Every structure is written in C-alpha cells, then in structure tokens.
Amino acid sequence: MRGAAGEVLDFQWTSLNAAAEHFVHDWGVPPVLSRWAPHGLRGVELEACVRVWATGVPLASTLRVSRDGLDGGFQVVGLKEADGLVLWLLEPASETQAAEGLRDALEREREARRRAEGALEGTRDVQAREELLRLALSMARMVAWEWTEGRRAVTWSQDAEGFFGQLPGTLGSSLPGFLSCVLAEDRPRVARGIEQALAVDGAYTLKFRCRHADGSTHWYEAVGQSFHEGERPHRMVGVVMDCTEREHAEAVLREAEERYRLAARATHDVLWDCDLATGRVSWDAGQEELFGYGRDAADHDMSWWTQRLHPDERDAVATGLRDFIASDKGAWQSEYRFLCHDGTWAHVLDRGVLSRDAAGRPVRMIGSMMDITERKRALERLAEEAQFRERFIGILGHDLRNPLNAITLSARALRRRTANNSSQQQMAQRIEASAERMGTMISDILDLTRARLSGGIPLQVAPANLSSVCRQVVEELSAVHPDRSIAFDVDGRSDGVWDADRLAQVLSNLVGNALEHGDQDAPVLLRCLDLEARQVVEVHNPGSPIPAPQLATLFDPFRQAGVARERGRRRSGLGLGLFIVREIVHAHGGSVDVRSSERDGTTFTVTLPRDARRAPR
Fold this sequence. Notes:
By secondary structure, the protein is of the alpha+beta class. Helices cover about 45% and strands about 25% of the residues. It has helices spanning about 20-25, 45-55, 95-140, 160-165, 175-180, 185-200, 245-265, 285-290, 300-305, 315-325, 375-415, 420-455, 465-480, 500-515, 550, 565, 575-585, and strands at about 60-65, 70-80, 85-90, 140-150, 155, 200-210, 215-230, 230-240, 270-275, 280-285, 300, 330-340, 345-355, 360-370, 460-465, 485-490, 495-500, 525-530, 535-540, 590-595, 600-610. It has a six-stranded antiparallel beta sheet with strand order 11-10-9-14-13-12, sandwiched between helices. A five-stranded antiparallel beta sheet has the order 5-4-8-7-6, with helices on both faces. Helix 11 packs antiparallel against helix 12 (about 420-455), helix 12 crosses helix 17 and helix 14 runs antiparallel to helix 17 (about 575-585). It is rod-shaped.
C-alpha cells in the first residue's frame, strides 16, 4: 500500500500477490480501496497503519473481516519502506505465526537496509578514493592513464593537457595524439617503447621530453603495466611523472662529477672518502695508476693506510690526523712518503676536509692525495745545482783575488814610475779603478756564497760608534761624488756592539744607491736615530719611486731597480748590494725596510738592536 504525500492519508493497493488476490476474491474486498473503514476494517487497524507510516515502527496486529455473516481472522504484519507500506496477512491468525511473520519482516527490512547502506557506503568509498587519487596525482605532479583493447582509446586523469603544457583538446584519446606532444627527437623511441610494452606482458618505463606551449622543454617519466589475455594485450595502465627538476639536478651533478674527475686526472690526485663512524676508506680508481694497488684496495680501513706510511713519518702523520679530527679545524694537510705496490716510496701531498653532523660531531672526511715525487726530485736537483753553483762561485771568487791583487799592485807601481807621463798615469789609474771595481764584485760574490752556504754572513762584533761609521761613509762617497750633496744628522747616542766594517758596507751600499738613483740636483739625507734599545739609520733620496712590482723582490740576489735604466744610466755591479745589506742586517738581528712614493721619494730604514750579541738571528 502507499500513502499519499500531505496531511490527508489515502492508502491504496498498488500490487497484490496470489494470496492477496484470493483474499480479495473470497471476502469481496475491491482491489482499490479509497478507505479501509467503509469495507469492514475497524479504525484501530487503520490507525495502526497510519502510526507505522508516521513512526516506522513495524505493525503486528489482528485483523477481523466480516462478510455475509462470516468472520475471518487474519494476523497483520506491516513494515514501512521507501515508497509505502508492505502488509502480510497471515491466515489462520496465531501469535506464533504473527511472531514469525514479524521476525521475517524485520529481517527482510534489515537486509534491505544493509544492502542500501552498503551500496551507499561503496559509492562514498569510490568517491573518496577518486578524490584521494586526484589529490595524490596533483601533489606528486603526475597524471594517470589507461588504454583498453575494447575501447581502443586512452583515458587520461584530470588536467592532463595542463600537465603536459598543451592546449585543451590536444591529447585526445589516442596514442598518436599523445605522441604529437612528445619532442620530435624522442618520438620514435617513445613509439617503440609503447609497442614493446604492448608486445610483452609486464612493467614498462619510458623517459621523454615534451615542449610546452610556452616554448619550455620538460622531462617526463612514464611507468606502468600492460596486461595480456593469451598473446593479445587487452589493457595498459600507468602514470606519468614530471621529472624536469630531477633531470636538471642530475645533469648538474654529472657535470660536477665529470669536472672533478678530469681535474683529479689532470693533477694526478687520488680521491678518498672516509666514514669516521666505521673507519672505512674508499678510494677512486686513480690509486691503481699512481700506487699500483688493485681494485681490492679501493675499500679498506684506516690501519691499511697507516701501515703504508714511511716508518720515519708514520707516528707524526697519524697523530696529526687524529688531532685534526678532534679539533675544530676544517682542513688538514700533510706531506709524507707512501709505500707503493712495487715497494718504492712515493712522496704525496695529502689534503682533506671534515663533514660534521648537526651536533658538530665529525662524521665524514673527504680528501685527495697528490703524487709530488717528481716535484720533490726536481726541487732536490735544483737545490743541488744551486749549491754547486754557489760553491763554484765562491771558489772562483776566492781564486780571482790573487791575480786581481797583482793587477792592482802593478797599476800602483806603474803610476809611481810614470809620474811625469800623463797618458801613462791615466792608463794606470783606469787599471787600478777597474781592479777595485772587480774586487768589490768578488767581495759581493763571496758574501753571497757565505750567506747561502754558511747560514748567514759571519760578523766580528765589538763596541762601535755608529755615527763615526756614518761620517766615514759620507766622507768616502763625497770624495767619489764631489758634485753631489750628502746631508748627515745624528739624534741621540749611537753606541752599540756591532761589526763596524759590515755596517760601513751596509751604509755604503744604501747611500751609493741613493746617489745613483736619486735626483742629481737633490741632496741625499743620512740620519742616525736613538730609540732606547734600538738604533735606527735612515737613508733618504728624492726622485722617481721604485716601481711597486719590484719592491717585493728588491732584496733578492741579482735584482736591480729599473729607475736607472729608464733614465739611460749605466748600471754597475751584479745586483747583490741590497741582498748583502739585508743579510748583514739580519746577521745583527735587525731588519731593513723600504718605502717609496712619488711624493715622498725613497727611504731605506735599518733597525738594529743595541747589542748584536744578544739579538736572535
């Protein structure tokens, strides 16, 4: 029966089973009832049906029907369903039958509700899973697709065109439509990959590029599965991921690794990586070429490396490395000899840096070993050659003094014998002056040899007065340069314990250089200053400054400032003067400095301790 909507209830039969039709025929109840009460139904049953409709509580009641003096008793069971009431009339009426009928009716209602709720829940689950899949694909920058043999079409997930950077409608539902989005260079390879996936039942992987509508190129990777029935494919499913950032990162990493590998090969470095937690060290393949160990030595522990250090250096190097790891320093470096596979020793320069965790604990150390054997040998050869040259120069300079002394004595004798012959006098003077200049050069060479081979120029220290030494130098140079002005000033005391002859050599070199390189019309100033425990001597000359690049090497042997040549003057000497000045001053425990500028000219400053015997060399 059904109930009409609204306040007025109008219950009518909508369908009858065979038993109900028999009931209607026997009792004369018409198939359609406008109301129950006029046809012998009591109001209580009608009210019960109305109550079932209003509350949904099942009906269990006895219905009495009278016709032509006959009374019929029926047990009525009623349930409310979605579109009306369902009534069961059980004859003959009994409480047992009524109870069973009610239980059956209730069970039927529960089953119907379970089916309806299960269907509804299934629908909700499908919707939830679809939404979850959509969000997952969006967050992971993926799209999903499916191809079936029955439909012969490709079904893409939402917003596939935007994912591939294409205009709406570009992809369509066919594989050719998808291939049209793939970069032309990758298209044949992708088409072959799809054919292979269709031919073989199983997983597949494809990587390709697409050019977006804005002109940019993106990398994609497709993974999925093909399913076959017999030998024919009937379905393919998969997802496509945007891996552009990963490809760019991997390309940068590959480029960096290749650059580092080539740099290591160019510098003959062996790269190593040490896990400080396990003590394992990994080497790259370069060690096979440099040290001759096989591939089994590419991974070893720290003791393997320590055992191959030279015995004379093992403790110092190993201890230094342990101290470095325990410190807060960031870089380590050490030179040592390392045992090669053939039993020879290689000189190596080993360098490494530490990697620390968030708590600052060292967890990893990475570095490189450079084979410097040839460089060490070259330096040793150069040192031997330099020592040989200096010894040879020293011996030569010493042996030249005897013939040079003979030349000087002969020139002086010639001057005495030819006192009345002016031309011969001039020749003798020229010979004597040249011999003196040669003697100065030989003295410089001998001083160079002593400084290099003996660890410094030897001194004969004694109490001396520096102002007297300065005055002597000024008088000698004034006689040689009568047209030049040399100013001399003493401020405070100038007594000390020095080698007076060597200091005279220092001052003669400095004042002589000032006269040679300074302005011809400007005076040279020599000052002697008292600074308590120290004595200072300054030599100043106006004029063009020494070029800045030459200041750093001015005191090196065989070096000369370029001012004289620029002015067209002839240079004299071997370029050892300032080197010898520095060595003599250092032998006294002092220092010599120079400053030079266009405005202030050039000033050499010599600082000496008051007593050279107590000063550190």
